[in-house]
Amino acid sequence: MTRFIRQRKKNKVIPGFALSMGITLAMLSCIVLIPLLSVILSLSGTTFAEFLATITDKQVLVAYRVSFQCSLIAALINCFFGVLLAWILVRYRFPGRRILDGFIELPFALPTSVAGIALTTLYSDSGWIGRIFAHIGIKISYTLIGITIALIFIGIPFVVRSVQPVLEKLDRQYEEAAMILGASQSKTFFKVVFPEILPAMLTGFGLAFARGLGEYGSVVFIAGNIPYKTQITPLIIISKLEQFNYDGATSIALTMIIFSFVILFSLNILQARVNKVTKV
Amino acid sequence: MKKPDVKSFKTGLLLGLTLILSMLVFSGCGASQTSSTPQEGTDDAVQAKAPVEITNVSYDPTRELYVAYNEIFQAHWKKETGQDVTIVQSHGGSGSQARSVLEGNEADVVTLALAPDVSSLEAAGLIEPGWLNEFDKNSSPYTSTIVFLVRKDNPKDLNDWDDIVKPGIEIITPNPKTSGGAQWNFLAAWAFAKNLYQGDETKTQQFLADLYANVTVLDSGARGSTTTFVENKQGDVLLAWENEAYLSLKEHPGEYEIVTPSISILAQPSVAVVDEVAKSRGTEEVAKAYLSYLYSDEAQRLVGKNFYRPSNPTILKEFASTFNLTLPLVTIDDDFGGWPAAKAKFFADGAIFDQIYKQ
Q: Is CATH 1.10.150.120 the right assignment for the domain spanning A47-279?
């Protein structure tokens, strides 16, 4: 009984809960839920056999692998560099820090095709950076490496901006205490700092990964788009659309949505677990 | 105990929804108000002579052509009827442009890269059947063809289709499955190989497989391929629309050369009035005039100056120094049995283009 009362009290504390919930639900429906549902509804003309045949076509399977592999690697690299970047921005004071801080969001602001074209030019074997790698026989633009680089560019703000506020709030006294108690620098980082930023890093990882799966604009320029080699799933969706094959495009899109949802959902669960562990 | 809670929740929900709806309605009103602002300076003009606006939804490489054409059409229409006309232009990949019209982009006329894109609008009921014969020459006021763009002095000595399938040659061409225009490239190569092997389809398909095995970057659109070849210096040869190739020559003088192969295809971009839209906006007359004036001598010369081949044979001859007019050109109707047959045979899912990559 006491528990119940406490809960009712809690509800009252949030002002206008019902109103804000109403607005949220309406907005969410208009912008997210209804479009997602329409994806499923527009499949009604397809039989299950057709659906299965479309999503298990070999060319499509290879494209899933390319998309998942590149997004995963890019998200992992982003975890490392993103944390490093956040660390530098939070812990050090150096000239140009604020400007660098401002640059982080640039990948969001830049039209992705512009980013794609710039990266392609830079990393092609006649470009500034690509030329160096071409000397040692590594081709970047028009290969899987190129796709991964584009996805790193697209995804890095997610990790930095997730980790940064946590690092800012992290009390430095913990680290000092660990040091005083004789922990080595690496031990301090991995036992004291890292568990604190891990949940935020996982969030950033999930966001960057999901964004990478859906990214089209920048990747089409830097990928060679060769079937069975460097074709990403969104490109296959576009090529189906181009032939007015709406059902085929929707089937593949739905598969991607399900995959992404499962991954993000498991990440959320994992994150909750990690949170619990660190809080105990 | 819970009852009042649910009730207040419901009212809140209702309030929220009403708020959102009213916001939508208000923004809708705002939009319609701005669009119906009375235009100044027309008060004295006769009703029929009020300025008119039409939208032309086109594909990528026609941008420069239509900027120039709109000017001469505006002058022509003003002289004929005394009416001012403004033309809104939209460019993009031909297929996605067709889709945008399909999904509600209000175009009075479409000027797209290939007939099937216009046919898709016919299938949706936006364009009346018979559009292909509404204007001369299958509603193609200008044509083009597929040529090779190579680097200066043609270092790999590429002169014909059988040169570019040799091992080690790197080809840049867009993907025919994402770029309608690139289907012309595929079909031109097919026509060459079919002649070479006297109609043997197995060998012809192998020829195409060899050709696409040499493709190092398969961009999603024609402009993308041009960028890959010209700006990023990839590949030895770009299979390009003749008009795009000339544009690259013009922008980078002295860096590239155009090679015309021994056989190519007559690429026929299609124009049509989007009947449903034009009717509802009352622009039928001007839309029709806009497209038929493309066939006038003045416009045909402008077409030639923009590196498209004029469909008027007399004016085409005036450009004999620009275009290789002796180049034999196959056509989609005579050599491939029309677009629906060609699409089904080559570009549908699992058709020949997919097969050559599966090998």
A: no
